[in-house]
Amino acid sequence: MKEKTMSRLCKHLAIKHSQKNSKGSADFCVKNIDHAAFGRREIEIAEQEMPGVIALRRRAEADKPLSGAKIIGCTHITAQTAVLIETLAALGASVRWAACNIYSTQNEVAAALAEAGYSIFAWKGESEEDFWWCIDKCINCEGWQPNMILDDGGDATHLMLKRYPAMFNMIKGIVEESVTGVHRLYQLSKGGKLTVPAMNVNDSVTKTKFDNLYSCRESVLDALKRTTDVMFGGKQILICGYGEVGKGCSAALKGLGCSVMVTEIDPICALQACMDGFRVVRLEEAIKSIDILITCSGNKNVVTRSHMDRLKTGCIVCNMGHSNTEIDVGSLRTPDLTWEQVRSQVHHIIWPDGKRIILLAEGRLVNLSCSSVPSFVVSITAATQALALIELYNAPPGRYKQDVYLLPKKMDEYVASLHLPNFDAHLTELSDEQAKYLGLNKTGPFKPNYYRY
Fold first, then answer.
1. Is 398 annotated as a binding residue?
2. Which of 80, 219, 289, 321 is the most exposed place for a label (fewest CB within 10 A)?
3. Residue 64 marked as a ligand binder
4. Cβ contact 148:170 at 8 Å
5. 314 assigned binding-site residue
6. Between these two residues, 322 and 145, which has the higher pLDDT value?
7. What's the pLDDT tens digit per position in 94-128?
């Protein structure tokens, strides 16, 4: 974005959203600060379902392992994120936070955080210009020098690297939790442009197996029901991608009586889909008969205009992947098609012959745009993010180079152990003889790095 445009935008938004909290601070930009009490109650509900993060907060609060950390956060701003933000602060960090998605912010939660004194810049329904302005406001703050980034999609990393390269080079570490953001980090690393260590928590076991699989298994149903009131039994569903997100979505829809088909590029994932009882097809083979089309690939232009031209009328189209590029929504913004808003985040796209499809969240992440995700699963991911930040921030010089790393397995196991008491689960302990036989330490790690769970 050009400097003059950014300057004009900053002035416009500063006037538009000029508010103060009860302590007189105006270092935030939210929809309505008066809704803070509602958001606080939502945060309290989330805390009850996030035992791992709360346990981590209580165990580490006295030690303040993030004392001196100044964290730029760019994630979905929900009640669950608020619990993470307040945990990071309790561990000693100073934070500034923006949203990674223009539709996923819970306005009342953002207000509650602003009222509590956090520098939050986000509201539901931001324009693209708003979106980049909010991230810039988090990064570029007089008298506050960021030294850590917690990203979901890589936008904060991208903007800082592009607009503030000197500031970027002083970052101690980046923690990234999405497929899209991790891909961008590996591209930077390959091109020699990644000048700081980064932690890929998306591919940590506690993120991939729990957030991507179990969370999506529940939230995809919630999003579809809330937006369309659809009856699932007997519907023809096509899932594009059979990674952990696709597996969760497929299992949930199959369990409610849908006939589920899968598209895949990876023969291993395709074979898994076959063994789980799903028919693996090409998009072109099934496009005319399906009732619901869901993308979960993390790729771009998976569903194009030519595909959507062949969908039958009434087909529901949505995206469960992080990136908003999986469905080519831009190709639908043409004079020959009519957009008709049905309800929030629900549009009819109407063809000249009267055919219409139902597009959810304009092709963006449908579960966080149109529903909510289970707090317990987010607790697992949030604890993983917090530990990754602690690890990178406190690592001695030389432990991590200018590259992308996976979360150490010992930390993955620790995150899981924080959540087991919620189920009254009791782990079996190895005897000395058993540990020696397996070649393990009695306290773990219990699996080699290549183990896939």
1. no
2. 289
3. no
4. no
5. no
6. 145
7. 999 999 999 899 999 999 999 999 999 999 999 99
